[in-house]
Amino acid sequence: MDQPLSDQPLWTPSEARVAASNLTAFRQAASARFGLRLDDYDALYDWSVAGKEDFWRFLWEWAGLKGDLGGVALADGDRMPGARWFPEASLNYAENLLANAPEGEAVVFWAEDKVKRRWSGAELRAEVSRLQQALKAAGVGKGDRVAAVVPNMPETLAAMLATASLGAIWSSCSPDFGAQGITDRFGQIEPTVLFAPDGYWYNGKSHDIRAKIAQVLTELPTVKAAVIIPYINETPDVSAIRGGVTWGNFIAPFAAAEPRFERVAFNHPLFILYSSGTTGKPKCIVHGTGGTLLQHVKEHRLHSDVKPGDRVFYYTTCGWMMWNWLVSGLAAGATLLLYDGSPFAPDGNILFDYADAEGMTLFGTSAKFIQQAEKSGLEPMRTHRLDTLRALASTGSPLMPENFAYVYRAIKTDIHLASISGGTDIVSCFVLGNPTAPVWAGELQTAGLGMAVAAFDDAGHAVSGEKGELVCTRPFPCMPVGFWADPDGAKYRAAYFERFPNVWTHGDFIERTVHGGWVIYGRSDAVLNPGGVRIGTAEIYRQVEQLPEILEAVCIGQEWDGDVRVILFVVLREGLTLDKALEDTIRKRIKENCSPRHVPARIVAVKDIPRTRSGKITELAVRDAVHGRPIKNTEALANPMALDEFRERPELEG
């Protein structure tokens, strides 16, 4: 076992903080309600899995959510897929968010240093009401799709809530997607209305996307109205866009009133999200109304300790599931702090400036942001107050132990650092934070309540203290409703249930620690297997990215001489070259801190590494490029030209 463990936790919550937490209040309430002795988190977790029907219903009641769950909590509960949660329920996602949205500032928006706006709860409801009426007039009803190519801005939130209020289905991507990437997604779901801005800001520059939207609409014949949000221009010309109408003109005929809500079934589709698409046209993953709401309420209120009046931020685009997660924070009574643009514009400190200026309580970001902040020499502890900040969450890729240490050394000593992991597949988390427990370097603190998470070996047996497949062995409410245009469910079953029957297999490589936490080692389908020894790529990245000469790295397994050999590609700091001395340093570090099996057979310098539009390195696309295989959907990549550097490399031919 080579877990990156430490002898002491990096942070332990005070007794007062534990006592005041939502998690403690919920645990005590559940104990009283069911006559149980849930004396600690472990007991609460065990009950949440064993008594899952009681747990999820009680969470609904405790959170005061609106709607009717009906008399049946779970039907066909022994089937995965096939289990049906609350089959008699009736609810509306938007109703629950707007009912709990703060009356004061509900939404604050920064677009780098270019735009700042804020909406009260009343202003948000008024905008949702007018949009609701406008969408209905445009032909949108229950089950129809509304698509959006949008920044993370207040209008996007209002459009989503108006869509959900009607029982319609929302699907979004970010405005930096290419035309083909947009149509590959939205062309499958046949939307009735499309929302888009006239452009967007990034790193101080404006990018007009009206011509791209006009092109996209030629491939989306079902769109009746294309609503253009003025963003980089006050009065954008939309005459060249088929069905084009500005936001103001779209809602102008309708007076603000209290929004009305179409209550729908628990599993009625709410969101359509997309797989990364690096292995073909993106799969359309359909998420249900009740499962999304319940899971997000659980993760915000219990695992993140979000309370009414808190101010919650996550750096995300609208093409990443963390946007869907973020906006559900309204259901916990939080103010949403939205941001669009570069996280480092203009001088590297903008997000920490935002935290101070707006009283941020939860700061959500990616592991890559934390790594880059450290490499850039940022020390917010010295330059910012961060006095309101109680929690910092990280996801997108494994957060290395050294990055944990950086947070406590350079950002804030008294903070709940929660490395979290789940994904688009469940629009939430399998493993995440526990605000009542210590934080150990390199570890995700706990499996989510109600989530029967385990690590399976190849034979399907649960293991601890060794790496295995991340699985969930019992049904949970936020499993997808299914995939769009997959009428018999064949693609859905193949994606998650083929490896181990009646068990969800997620595709991550994970290990249970001696502290009861978890370590993520990267995607299991990109796991290296030299000589039959399974190696997670994150283990190698942990060592390599600590070297000051290296900005970034990607590691793959190359098929070679009947086996697999480890190939490491590195991006070097400007002005440096990959000489023998640096190669020796890299190999020595990996050998000493991992094992001889981890040492790459070849190390190759490249200028850039391909990544998805949500910022994730695409190991599988690199692997296919190295082997001369076609990459089926380069539109899923933010920088597809980077793949050219990995094809036909002479260094890999001998």
UniProtKB/TrEMBL annotation:
GO terms for molecular function: acetoacetate-CoA ligase activity. Residues 41-96 form the Acetyl-coenzyme A synthetase N-terminal domain. Residues 546-616 form the AMP-binding enzyme C-terminal domain. InterPro entries: Acac_CoA_synth, ACAS_N, AMP-bd_C, AMP-bd_C_sf, AMP-binding_CS, AMP-dep_synth/lig_dom, ANL_N_sf. Pfam families: ACAS_N, AMP-binding, AMP-binding_C. Transmembrane segments: none annotated. Its EC number is 6.2.1.16. Keywords: ATP-binding, Ligase, Nucleotide-binding. Coiled coil: none annotated. CDD domains: AACS. Belongs to the ATP-dependent AMP-binding enzyme family. This is Acetoacetate--CoA ligase. It comes from Azospirillum himalayense.
